[in-house]
Amino acid sequence: MKLDSLAIKYDNGLLWVLDQQALPQQEIWLECHSIDDMCAMIKALKVRGAPLIGIAALLALMQYVTKGATIEEIKIAIKQLVATRPTAVNLKNYMQVLLNQLTTNVEVVFEIGQKFFLEDITLCENMATLGAELIPPGANLMTCCNTGGLATAGSGTALAVIKKAFQQQKVKHVFPCETRPLLQGGRLTAWELEKANIPYTLICDNMAAMVMAQGKVDAILVGADRIAANGDIANKIGTYSLAVLARFHQIPFYVVAPYTTLDSTCASGRDIVIEIRDPNEVRGALGKLSWTPEQTQVYNPSFDVTPAELITNYILDTGIFNPASIHLAINESRTIEKLSI
Questions:
Q1: Domain tally for the chain?
Q2: Strand pairing category for 319-321 and 313-316
Q3: pLDDT > 70 in the chain, percent
């Protein structure tokens, strides 16, 4: 079985991930040999993005099966993988589906892994098509973090919408925010925009208000790592700030995410566990440069929570919803608990 995307490749038991820590200077493919390897790659953000983390975990389990893993060994590996990133829900959702069906036959790992990989490609295309309809001609857009092909098996979430709208000649310019942790907007989104020949200007996160005040932004598009039952979202740190600024400047604020990011078991954003990362990610740059005193105290949350009332629309693969109707998508669409192959 062969599965191939911008950021991950699987070929009959062989597994590689594009090292997103090395981008944009180098495009290095790292071979994954074990569950421990994949856990380390996920924790280090060498593979990242809520949908792609879940898919990468599934592919690692597929590889594990080719090495002779038993059902009990797979269950232990699932616990390892789920523990790597607590905020993004896609990983937990995928693993729960697998656990529900992992009864007597390890071959189900291959079926579920292939299903979710191929499905994600379709979900991305659906979101891109629906979202592009909301983008006016000549639009200047803002986004944060990376939500493109580096974060999914397909073309992405928010960045896929931007790419689709650009193909429709609607997008004039994009302002990606550099985005902590590890400047994923500056390193990764800029890399994808460059490859797509989309005009862009990188800004620091704390420049967003000024750019909006200058009338340079027509809409803001972000992804989501978890959407709670009440519509609150967890997304990369800085998203909440953009939503508040968008409300003040009367700019549409769109959240783009697949159904695999919905979490009907999470009542609100208050219940979302926020990942706290290594202080050294703030003290310096990628371990190569330090710009603070060595003992500087650092608070380094990876995500923040944006309340539903600050969101203009949710662009899901199943349709476009507003805060008043998002519960319909969560409760009545293809919720993860109902999934089966």
A1: 2
A2: antiparallel
A3: 96
